[in-house]
Amino acid sequence: MKINNIRTKIILLFLAIFTLSTTSCVKELEELNSDPNAIEELPYGIQLTRLQLYLSGTRYEMRRASLGWAMSAIQQFADVNISTSLLPGDKYIDFLDYSSSLFDRAFTNEYKDLADYMARVSEDPEAINYHAAGRVMRVLSFHRTTDLYGDIPYFEAGLGYLDNEWTPSYDSQEEIYNHMLMELEEAALEFSNSAPSIGSQDLFYGGDITRWKKLSYSLMLRLGLRLVKVDPAAAELWVSKAIAGGVMTDLNDVVKTEHQIDGGWINTNPYGEAFEIDKFMRLSDTFVSWMQDHGDPRLEILSFVESGGPHQGLPNGLDPNTLETMGPAGGDLANYSQLNQALVQRDSPFMFMTYAEVELMLAEAAVRGWYSGDAQTHYNNGVRAAMENWSFYGVSTPTTAEVDTYLSANPFDAANAIEMIGEQYWAATFLNPWEGYANWRRIEYPVLTPVNYPGNATGGTIPRRLKYPDTEYTLNEENVRAAEARQGPNSYTTRIWWDKN
After folding, report:
1. What structural domains does the chain harbor?
2. Tens digits of per-residue pLDDT, 328-354?
3. Could you give the CA distance from residue 323 to residue 233 in angstroms, rounded to a whole number?
4. What is the pTM of this model?
5. What mean pLDDT value characterizes the chain?
6. What is the 3-state secondary structure (H, E, C) of 207-273?
């Protein structure tokens, strides 16, 4: 009996020693494998800052899809190059790596971070304002992607790292829009003064939830008007809700990100990087001529002619040979208007939505009879704000007297109100190409004359959407084919859900 007791005690002693040594080894291994500089719990504010910087984009997609397709397709920019290095939207040439660039960047970078952020703040009852801001950010990001491509992965986007969902289903744009509008409505109500503030790491508004609510309703106004052609009753409903909720009321409400000269791509303005490298883009003759015809003082802000000659836009659809024979200022690009480089520096702000846009949308709502405000007053406010908005770029803007003169020379005409509003919105969204291109397809003003360059991909019509990347047909074929069956062929001429004939 004594021997058995001694044996038991020895076994227990060895077990205790083994347990202690194993625990010590595990702790040592954990210490060796841990990064002393790693952030174990990423603060919500830092992640929100990153998301806001991501939203401006990188030179890759902003150079290719924004300048290359959107701004040139609606004839704000032009070029004579016929290679992949400049603006395929000038001549509707099928350069797929340009067309798919926003899709590539959004789904490989932006949406996985958005999904992670939303999952984290959803689980924290103290993160109410972070959650509401994330919902608005998600709409701000996804609506530009669906407006460019139509049906896209939405509900399952970015869930690969969270739910191991690597082949997300494509959702119909109708479903996406319904959900985005609901998100905006709920987010506006979710913001709370009693919850912790999102604070100074919020690059948009410094944690001011009053302005976040205005952004929620202003985006609702934008998305509501997007439905004009496909569902006028729903458009009126959402426009009315937005106005009742309270939209932007002055220039302080614009949503933008301030950038820095250095600090890597995520801190710099992507247009600043693009224009440092590409020197051949010119303002379109369509855009410059419109400003000249209306005596628009913005021309002096936007246009710079290297040769010192008069402002002269470059006609869309020319190449080096036809420039020599058909160019209104000859074959030397130095005689054509470039964009004022002061507006596209690395530290220039990036605009996502402006007060000018909101005022012009209110004017349209009044014209359509969906709002009791005075259309002319909102139109004038929108034009004035669009000119004053350039002050954010550190350049001189037209004086009050100059704007008054412009409005007197171009008075609001109720009989042509939608056309006038569309043209001014086109001008007001210069350097906000996602919105400018989407709104042009919705309202189709100004009236643009398409080009029909040999070998173009649209049969000489302005593109209605951009194409999905080829990788979707190798990595997610079943789902992208389902989107095609619902929406139509993956071509530049296929109209997305809200862009009906």
Report:
1. 44-271+347-355+427-487 (1.25.40.390)
2. 999 999 999 999 999 999 999 999 999
3. 48
4. 0.91
5. 91
6. CCHHHHHHHHHHHHHHHHHCCCCCCHHHHHHHHHHHHHHCCCCCHHHCEEECCCCCCCCCCCCHHHH
